[in-house]
């Protein structure tokens, strides 16, 4: 290579901390990175060296690029006299002194190579100095002049929840890691991009799975930064360029087993894109897009390092290489940045037994004394997020979470628009109206950043800092994993905005004191994420994760104490109440026939189990959601819930069901003749074992119906009065309402007969006429 | 909620092999009303309106269905057969022929349900015994008291079915 030039230039501005740190000694650090470039088998050498103080101030920065082709190795020399300046892109951070040298076939070395070298080096330095890699970068960006860059970094790290360490699953075959990288330019329009990549690396195979990418780019100055999401197609492409091979991951507790792994479809991208084309201008569509995607490769390299301690200084990061390195490496002890400390022990059990007024008073006092009022979280620019911000996989994942969580059930008013709020939730403390969770800027959550959304979901605090009532089950949602939370946010923010102001919730004193909820939270709310139990199967963990988290089963099926908090311990899923319906216990065998895993799956998936009856009332919409989920998720839920009860013998269940289906003989129902007549006229055509030629839909037999054997008649009377006009799934069929046909006396006779005939082991229900009147009243 | 609550609007039904759209149907309008008023099929009768007497019986996807308690929207995408779908006055269905020959009607109001239920019964059980016939028609109410004739008609229909098969 004869055409080499050297031109070392000093392009640095004054360092941010030059004056204060000048006394510190510096150490010299140098690393060489390589990038495939130019003709085949040709490598670009990218050498970075700095003099850094132990506190992480990089005073000088030297960078040089050379082509390292076959046969040219001998010509290579450090700072040979025939170099010329690199493009300013290789320089991003502010140092006291910086020099860039650039080997001559400049166009051959793509911009991405410079970004890779610089960002990998920053990460290595941060790791060696035990500093947060983001923090280290921010120190070398000027607070005023680089305010736009700092803002972009802030927004991306906030959205990715940087600093929250992802799960540390000791027994897992997969090592998790997270990496950060950024790029930008000051010339012309300021333009910055930042990436945070979460990956999993398999300990044995070295397979790399990209679990999540949070990437954003921003234009404009510091005063009014606008963050754009990086289009998911671009993300997928950039990731495939970096890895150059297919990768996959087994699902963990927060992933649906049936769906494709949450990594991007790298296999198909890799088929069409080879490394030799990655630096050419057509590899990425536009200069803007190139800038947006530039940090991808370094972010992945940094994430792999975070996960495994193995540093790649040359792409692609193939699993074979990784595997051989992993064989002799202990995983590093990553530095935990800003991880929340363990919660101190609380005194909730001492206080929970107190009188209601006393405890409330105490709570207010505690709240004032200990818990400072939550602050408002700054709004995001309206309309700055949309469906194109996130990958299709993320949005689909979010849609499923929304289904599991039944968001729309409570956040949609009858006849109202989806998720626009206004659903009246009757609680023992008064009526609470649900809020608008569409991305409308004025009336919905359009101004909510991810941080605000996550805080609401985990801590029950709205963006403006006010406390939400725990009718909103953030007590359960706190268990959700971070990727699920983000996917849900993505999904909700990409839905149509609906301008609708729901009625204001006004509870009577003292429940109208929202700050008192802080005390309630302190007493009753544990905001820790779900921790899988390594001794249990993946299916079990998946089931528990869904049941305790997004699906918030306990909100209805766990009894609550006098302050409206779910009881713990033995009361877990031991039966509760929902909208005037009795939510049966999910543990123990309280019905006439024990639940098998298969029966529970059928019930959850289709809304009907032959041995137990039909999902109705508030459970109807739950089943409607579950019917759309991947089947393994519903199986996991059934598996976990069944595991909470003693194991049942299938044969015993079958014989119990057989015995139960016919009910008691006629003798035991003497004196209930009028109820019998009503049953024969109105019910038997569908609900008797011998019921004529039948009817469209399922035929639940009363002897096998959970609501008939429950201790309270409420559920049966709800159905008798109101029928089922909106079955959970289309195959269930409809039931007419009888509330207008029979008065409370007739209802009482009918219910008494059904109870005596079909639940002969249970005591007769008392006060049926009164309960019937209540149910009638509630329907109006 | 993911399972859509029925809404007011147009409803398309496939009745006796013909598909037709009715421009506006209230979400809670029973199938019977739509069949009688919009499709002008008066075979199915309005009796009790509570699914108890069986006069409104039609066959939906092979199931005897009390059209007075099933919303029309619930029958979307399903195969609906009414009495008119069995035969014509000139060419009655063999079950209809059996009922005529046994003179099983007095007022005749229940006969739609009797005939439709018989059809479902014979499809399920081509050679029903007397107890099975009684059980199948148990919830189709007849106030005139022609039960003996109806039993005879069903037995005769079952014989016709046997002869056809031979």
Automatic annotation (TrEMBL), chain A:
SUPFAM superfamilies: Cytochrome c, Molybdenum cofactor-binding domain. Keywords: Heme, Iron, Membrane, Metal-binding, Transmembrane, Transmembrane helix. Residues 1-29 are annotated as: Disordered. The keyword Membrane applies. The keyword Transmembrane applies. One of its GO terms (molecular function) is oxidoreductase activity. The chain crosses the membrane at residues 350-372. InterPro entries: AldOxase/xan_DH_Mopterin-bd_sf (IPR037165), Cyt_c-like_dom (IPR009056), Cyt_c-like_dom_sf (IPR036909), Cytochrome_c-type_DH (IPR051459). Residues 393-496, 538-645, 670-758 form the Cytochrome c domain. It comes from the Bacteria. This is Gluconate 2-dehydrogenase (Acceptor).
TrEMBL record, chain B:
The keyword NAD does not apply. Pfam families: Fer2, Fer2_2. The keyword NAD does not apply. It comes from the Bacteria. Keywords: 2Fe-2S, Iron, Iron-sulfur, Metal-binding, Oxidoreductase. SUPFAM superfamilies: 2Fe-2S ferredoxin-like (SSF54292), CO dehydrogenase ISP C-domain like (SSF47741). This is (2Fe-2S)-binding protein. GO terms for molecular function: 2 iron, 2 sulfur cluster binding; metal ion binding; oxidoreductase activity. Residues 9-86 form the 2Fe-2S ferredoxin-type domain. It comes from Caballeronia fortuita.
